[in-house]
Amino acid sequence: MYLLLNEEVRYISIRTDPEVITQTLAFLENKWKAFVPGQPFEYFFLDDDFDSLYKAEKKIVQLFTSFSILAILVACLGLFGLASFTAEQRTKEIGIRKVLGATVSNVIVLLTKEFSKWVLLANIIAWPVAYFAMHRWLQSFAYRINIGVWMFFLAALLALAIALVTVSYQAVRAALANPAESLRYE
User: pTM for the complete prediction?
Assistant: First the structure.
């Protein structure tokens, strides 16, 4: 039992066994009425109070998750469009490369290398911003985790995987196209 007496706040904190909580509350209420008959017996559970403190954080996490998924979908659509445009612009180059002996995997690497470079550059730029934002946000908590470098590498790998999956359809389609069709009018 802890007793906190302040001019404005008066609390008694009691740790109880969860199996006998109703009997404990009845006992405490009887003792309260015996010692302080004019004051009402009010109580709350500390775990519920702590849960209400983090309710706003849980809502923020849900909001960030929703907007992150939406941002990833929009970015994938943009990346898909850019990959389609790039493959269309480089159709003749791809056709010439295939005629000269380039394999399907060479053409896929050629098309995905450019996008991978930009995704990795974006990650390197975003890492310091994310680190300082997360570090500042975590300072508001009494108990916090350390932000490890592995989290940033995992995020970079995930972003790179999403970009490669998005671009790979267009890259494979361009690599499997008949080079005679792309060079017919040249």
Answer: 0.66
